Amino acid sequence: MLAVNGIPTPENLAEVFPSQERLAKGPVAIAECFQNIPCDPCYHSCKQGAIQEFADINERPRIHFDQCNGCGTCMSRCPGLAIFVVDATFSDNEALVKIPYEFLPLPQVDERVIAVNRAGQEVGEVRVIRVQNSKIQDKTAIVWLAVPKEQMMEVRHFKIKEVR
Question: Which SUPFAM superfamilies does the UniProt entry name for this protein (predicted)?
């Protein structure tokens, strides 16, 4: 239960996940923000108009999935690191999961890392495809992971195998 252990329930997740049809169309942002807090940088960062305007700054973000192109600009603006991009069209057997990351050291392209789920449990080994870390991202890197398609909605973070 979210209020007790911080882990969203399947019902919580169903409220924020795009449909299978939308996932099949390409990259899309998913806002796994489950608290009503005064926060709206994601809305202001979205040039596509995919994040619904907030009537009250304490509302949770709502994404218009049909307007989202999965650019990920909102990810590095989210102070709660609660927005992810999933691309189910990456390959026949892998999806791309873009994860906001604020730790050092940053992983390297082609490095194998340990994917973890929302509870911090290891899901398996995955490959780093790209690491975006530009000045405009304000120290929130975006790490692109190639994950098995069946885990694309489960993988939400990772651990580097060895500290370099």
Answer: 4Fe-4S ferredoxins
**Shortest CA distance to 65 belongs to which of 75, 52, 76?**
52
Nearest one of 63, 1, 77 to 29, comparing CA atoms: 63
Using DSSP's 3-state secondary structure scheme, residue 4 falls into: helix
Domain ranges in the chain?
2-160
Amino acid (one-letter) located at 41: P
CA separation for the pair 83, 152 (Å, rounded): 14
Q: Which of 157, 49, 51 is nearest to 101 (CA)?
A: 157
The per-residue pLDDT string of the chain (164 residues; one tens digit each, 9 = 90 and over) reads 677 888 898 899 999 999 999 999 999 999 999 989 999 999 999 999 999 999 999 999 999 999 999 999 999 899 999 999 999 999 999 999 999 999 999 999 999 999 999 999 999 999 999 999 988 777 899 999 999 999 999 999 999 987 65
| Polymer length in residues for the chain | 164
